[in-house]
Design brief:
The protein has helices spanning 18-35, 42-53, 60-70, 73-78, 81-84, 92-114, 122-133, 170-179, 200-213, and strands at residues 3-6, 9-12, 140-146, 152-160, 184-190, 219-227, 230-233. The protein is an alpha+beta fold and 240 residues long. The protein folds into two domains: 3-104, no CATH class; 118-233, Cytidine Deaminase, domain 2 (3-Layer(aba) Sandwich). Helix 2 crosses helix 3. The longest helix is centred in the middle third of the chain and has 23 residues, at 92-114.
């Protein structure tokens, strides 16, 4: 078995590249501990994630390749598994670790949104929605169900569609709100194209849901569209 000297010792199975990338790993970890994530680039953050799954490789080239292919750290961890699997050198363990990071980020954001009155912590709601949906490869309709105090009762994905369309059934949306005893809802959906600009169909669908919900005592507070390039609020744009 090949041995590589590192700091006066040997590390089995690492080959000649061992000392180089082991030293790099320790320096990167130290920089993260001392200065935080803001001191690291996107590809360096990816390296930290990949270290555990790929302990005997220099992962910097792979991290840079992933950023070049998908665009950013967030887009890499949120990329569909089938697309990640197409990247040479990225095995199942590494993909699982990336998906754990995505799930952890989503859960943290959801926890921040749930702890506060939703309408008084709009930034937490937006952060959660973007984390959960902005990088998805298919359109989804997510609904946040609120009680009288605007606290989050439930957060559910109602529909998943194609890259540019999600079927929406207004009566089913309102029926679910009544089942949960919700008095208000926030509609959220994503645009996989990245551009969150609302379409005419988005606007019309929102007005239809408002018309069905209002007589039954359910208010539609907003319809948020998220994408890689930001978000759009129909209420903020005065479209509802």
């Amino acid at each position: 078995m090949a041995k590589a000297k590192a700091n006066g010792g040997t590390v089995e199975g690492l080959g000649e590249a061992g000392p180089h990338y082991l030293g790099h790993r320790e320096r990167l970890r130290a920089r993260f501990r001392e200065a935080g994530s803001d001191a690291l680039s996107d590809y360096e953050m990816l390296e930290l994630v990949l270290f555990r799954a790929l302990p005997r490789r220099d992962v910097k080239p792979l991290a840079k390749q992933l950023i070049a292919k998908f665009g950013s750290f967030g887009e890499v961890v949120a990329a569909p598994e089938k697309l990640l699997a197409e990247v040479k050198g990225l095995g199942g363990s590494a993909i699982t670790d990336l998906k754990i990071v995505q799930a952890a980020a989503s859960r943290l954001a959801r926890g921040a949104a749930k702890k506060r009155t939703v309408l008084s912590s709009w930034s937490a709601v937006l952060d959660y929605c973007r984390t959960a949906m902005a990088f998805a490869d298919k359109e989804q309709l997510r609904i946040l169900f609120l009680d009288k105090r605007n606290q989050l009762i439930a957060d559910e994905v109602q529909q998943t569609g194609t890259v540019d369309h999600t079927p929406v059934y207004p009566r089913e949306v309102v029926k679910r709100a009544l089942e949960l005893s919700a008095t208000a809802i926030i509609l959220v959906h994503n645009h996989p194209s990245g551009d969150p600009t609302p379409s005419q169909a988005d606007i019309q669908m929102t007005h239809t849901i408002i018309e069905v919900a209002k007589p039954l005592g359910v208010a539609v507070h907003d319809h948020i569209i998220v994408g890689r390039e930001g978000h759009a609020s129909l209420k903020g744009l005065r479209l509802i």
